Amino acid sequence: MIVGIGARRGISSQEAIDAVHNALAELGRDIADVQMLASAKLKENEEGLHEASKALGIELRFIDHDELNRYDAPSDSQAKRFGLTGVAEPAALALSEKKELILRKKVYGRITIAIAE
């Protein structure tokens, strides 16, 4: 599974970790099932995401905006302000094998999570 993450500016690593765990719990899945975390290039300076990735022991990859826009996000997104179709859903889809969302984007506080296989 690939976990796509969108985040407000200045989030803490704990916010991101909690959001990932909550999303996985809703699916009845385990952190061990996660291959990678993914987000948009515009989030690559978010220290909380880097720290969460390190704490979880899961690689975090930032996806180029052109690549994200190749995927139609089924949910409306605030990322349209930045010229993106979305962040969490397209990021998860971009790195997934089946290109299938198993959890459409869901907001957990200041974090948005989507999961794809």
Summarize the structure.
This protein is of the alpha/beta class and 117 residues long. It is built from four helices and five strands; from the N terminus they run βαβαβααββ.
How would you sum up this structure, described in words?
Helix content is 32%, strand content 25%. It has 117 residues and is of the alpha/beta class. It contains four helices and five strands, in the order E-H-E-H-E-H-H-E-E. Helix 1 (13-27) crosses helix 2 (47-56). It has a five-stranded mixed β-sheet with strand order 3-2-1-5-4. It starts with a strand and ends with a strand. The chain is globular, with a radius of gyration of 12 Å.
Average pLDDT level: 93
Q: What ranges have pLDDT less than 50 throughout 5 or more consecutive residues? A: none
Strand content: 15-25%
Number of strands: 5
Radius of gyration: 12 Å
Please trace the helix and strand order, writing H or E for each element: EHEHEHHEE
Question: Judging from the principal axes of the Cα atoms, what is the shape?
Answer: globular
Fraction of residues in H or I helices? 25-40%
Keywords:
single chain; 25% strand; 117 residues; globular; five-stranded mixed beta sheet; alpha/beta; 4 helices
